[in-house]
Amino acid sequence: MSDGNYNRNLLPYKPFQSGLKTGRAQMHTLALQAFAKWLDEQGFDPATQQQHLLRLRELLPL
Question: CA–CA separation, 62 vs 60, rounded Å?
């Protein structure tokens, strides 16, 4: 009979928290891209766009 760790040792190492951090980083990037696209559609000048993007980066947790 095998001990309780037998099946766990056969699986590749993929921590759950790492997957959550990866997904969170992807959503962060998508949010920044969508906001930048929206700013561009609204006709903001590039300097104002950068100010708003920097402020959004400060507000978004990561």
Answer: 6
